[in-house]
Amino acid sequence: MTHPIIVIGAGIGGLSAAIRLRAAGRPVTILEANSTVGGKMSEIRADGFRWDTGPSVITMRHVFADLFAAAERKLEDYLTLLPVDPLTRYFYPDGTRFDALADRAAMSATLRAFAGESDAAGYLRYLDYARRIHDITGGVFIYNDPPTFWRVARTPLRDIPAVDPLRTMDGAIRSFVRSPKLRQFLGRFATYVGASPYLAPATLNVIADVELSGGVWYPQGGIYAIARAFERLARELGVEIRTDTPVSRIDVANGRVTGVTLADGSRLDADAVIANVDVATVYEKLLPRDAVSPRPITRLTNVEPSCSGFILLLGIEGQHADLAHHNIFFSRDYRREFDDIFARGVPPDDPTIYVAITAKTDPGHAPDGGENWFVLVNAPALDERYDWSKNVQAYRDHVLNRLAEFGCDVRGKIRVERRLTPVDIERMTGARRGALYGVSSNDRFNALRRPHNRARDVRGLYFAGGTTHPGGGVPMVTLSGKVAAQMVLADSPDRV
Ligand SMILES: Cc1cc2nc3c(=O)[nH]c(=O)nc-3n(C[C@H](O)[C@H](O)[C@H](O)COP(=O)(O)OP(=O)(O)OC[C@H]3O[C@@H](n4cnc5c(N)ncnc54)[C@H](O)[C@@H]3O)c2cc1C
């Protein structure tokens, strides 16, 4: 008898895997602990305001179009992705600012005025360099199965210097632009995977290509529209989605997955299980102890996590014509900021502050005359060095005071407020230590060490999500669902 493929978790990676499998004719059931789908992608509403609580910057539109095409649907019938222009507005402590633009010529002109001829030319050379990294590494590290030693080894020798694995991101950026402000701007892309530009390998400059050349997209209605669109497509295809259904154990017999046990004690048989759960949590909490050796557990739980975040959701009275949809208020000393996060394990004393206002594009997200601010500051993943319960109010005040120094004083205009610390992020999403993007990318070997999408020691168990290949971020986890689904299909081709 054929049992369904069970997907544990209706995060973006889980939904993506389920859509692919169902489109290939397999019966699929998703079991989700929360009462809604989306995982870290979530939304809340209060007093006429609406906020996304997780991701806010969406890139790589083609990844979403590809998923819908796999189900013979058109993305635009489910989701309106609007190009965001400017990509982001950058503010510096000395009062200067510029708009990052996807149009090369317009951006070059902007930077010529902002930083001079030489850096504008350096920026264009940097874009070409980042594009080349994307071209070379895309097939090995992003769009296909996890990299193997042999696939990496087949990279033509002449291409290896272009991948730039030995320098840090910042080290490479310095060779293109001299302005400390532009170095800060380009280094910022390390934070898209929760890393530091002073530690992460220069190969990660690929992220800048994805955003600065590929563009940023905003799903009309809010980022959560992506989760809603994935859910709608999955249900239309016949995926069974059971919310409020936590899984307490993955059942294994003779080294092979047989099904899952739910928190209420009931059991479901499965042909295969895809866990859209942090891989370390799967080994630590969901797999029976006698089914796996302790080694992978120690290896998985000991790795450095990506950074977490401190979030303020603010319902603001009044509008700020100076602000764009995405805004960055830079710190004075970027290196010190990352030292605070990764070396000292404390939230930055002088943080770079990100403010997203979806009401700039979707006016219905705030009452007339108001704005919905999503304020995010990078923060260390949870550990014993910092106690959020004692410091939330003071740190919140600190962040708002810094914004006021930039001329954005909203302290007397806040009508609604929600705060999310790394503790809340861990509690609400299951992210270990509140890490936003799974394991850290600060180490140049982490892309090779990332847990495989196919469990090595338990047959029939697969992984999709931010802690497996190809990594964290909405497009990446959408791709991880594709990889996991392809592996299930390859391992059981006769089950259609
Ligand atoms: C604050 C924040 C900001 C971010 N900003 C961006 C951004 O701007 N751009 C971007 O691309 N990415 C961003 N990210 C990262 C992005 O949100 C994640 O990489 C991505 O959404 C993770 O998807 P996932 O498939 O790994 O699943 P997750 O979102 O981790 O979902 C896993 C699901 O599994 C469920 N689950 C866990 N255990 C069980 C169980 N035992 N039984 C049943 N269900 C279970 C959970 O409830 C959850 O719904 C951000 C993340 C956060 C938190």
Structure description:
By secondary structure, the protein is an alpha/beta fold. It has three domains: 5-39 and 221-303 and 443-491, 3-Layer(bba) Sandwich (FAD/NAD(P)-binding domain), CATH 3.50.50; 103-214, Orthogonal Bundle (Guanine Nucleotide Dissociation Inhibitor, domain 1), CATH 1.10.405; 307-433, no CATH class. Helices cover 36% and strands 19% of the residues. It is built from 17 helices and 19 strands. α3 crosses α4 and α4 (117-142) crosses α9 (206-213). The chain is globular, with a radius of gyration of 22 Å. The two termini are 12 Å apart.
Largest sheet properties: 7 strands, mixed
Share of β-strand residues: 15-25%
Q: Over all CA atoms, what is the radius of gyration? A: 22 Å
Mean pLDDT: 94
- Derived from helix and strand composition plus strand pairing, the structural class reads alpha/beta
- Number-wise, the strands total 19
Q: What CATH architecture of the largest domain do you see?
A: 3-Layer(bba) Sandwich
CATH superfamily of the largest domain: FAD/NAD(P)-binding domain
Strand order of the largest sheet: 7-6-15-16-17-14-18
Notable features of this structure?
about 500 residues, 19 strands, Guanine Nucleotide Dissociation Inhibitor, domain 1, alpha/beta, binds flavin-adenine dinucleotide, FAD/NAD(P)-binding domain, about 20% strand
Short recap of the structure:
With 496 residues, this protein is of the alpha/beta class. It has helices at residues 12-23, 61-70, 104-115, 117-142, 149-153, 160-163, 169-174, 180-187, 206-213, 224-237, 279-286, 294-302, 334-344, 388-405, 422-429, 446-449, 474-491; strands at residues 5-8, 28-31, 43-46, 49-52, 81-83, 88-91, 97-100, 217-219, 240-242, 247-253, 256-262, 267-269, 272-275, 308-317, 326-329, 353-357, 370-379, 414-420, 461-463.
